[in-house]
Design a protein that fits this description.
Helix content is 58%, strand content 0%. It is mainly α. Among the domains are: 65-123, no CATH class; 130-184, no CATH class. It starts with a helix and ends in a 14-residue tail after the last helix. Residues 1-18 form the signal peptide. This is Secreted protein.
Length: 195
């Protein structure tokens, strides 16, 4: 009993310390590195990621709901993989699916593609021609602010390339890169010298 109490105190103390840690001091994630490149400092990258963060929130409904994903997955006669159930369980708990769809819910390429088509078609992200519905995407991003970000992302909606094999994540990454590129880099003001 004493060990359980000690363990509980340790977990609470660790989570409290982690929540107090400044996120700009943490190293960049792989996604952040791919979006920021090598020239940006960690703080500048995190600042840009923060400003472009609302894109995820605005686009998340186009990635489907846990119920939609489950419904589409159940149309396949191929058994679903265990990691897909873990992904779906997390989505059910949080109520959101995030910005990535499960890559291989079954391991069968044709069944996986059919499931992805079903999910993206049900949200309106995919048109009847199996191309991205850019009008739907633009409408979803209509509330991006400030206007400079809205303009950059609005332009990217139509200029980012059509993803191959319905890899929508690549398209979304292009939108984020355009958003981040539209934010000026923070450079320290020139120092004033005295003669």
């Amino acid at each position: 009993m004493g060990l359980l109490c000690l363990l509980s105190v340790f977990v609470v103390a660790t989570s409290t310390a982690a929540s107090l840690l400044d996120s700009s001091l943490l190293p960049l994630t792989a996604e952040e590195k791919s979006l920021c490149g090598k020239k940006l400092t960690v703080a500048a990258c995190k600042m840009k990621m923060g400003l472009c963060g609302p894109l995820d929130t605005l686009l998340a409904p186009l990635m489907g709901t846990p119920q939609t994903i489950l419904s589409c997955a159940n149309t396949s006669a191929v058994p679903l993989k265990a990691d897909f159930f873990a992904y779906l369980g997390k989505a059910m708990i949080t109520g959101a699916v995030g910005m990535t769809l499960p890559k291989k819910p079954t391991g069968d390429p044709l069944a996986d593609l059919a499931i992805k088509k079903c999910i993206l078609g049900s949200t309106g992200l995919l048109g009847d021609d199996l191309q991205l519905n850019r009008t739907t995407i633009a409408a979803q991003l209509a509330n991006v602010s400030p206007p400079s970000l809205a303009a950059a992302v609005g332009l990217a909606v139509n200029t980012c390339p059509e993803p191959l094999e319905l890899k929508v994540e690549e398209y979304l990454k292009c939108l984020k890169k355009s958003c981040m590129a539209s934010i000026p880099d923070l450079t320290p003001p020139p120092s004033v010298g005295f003669s």
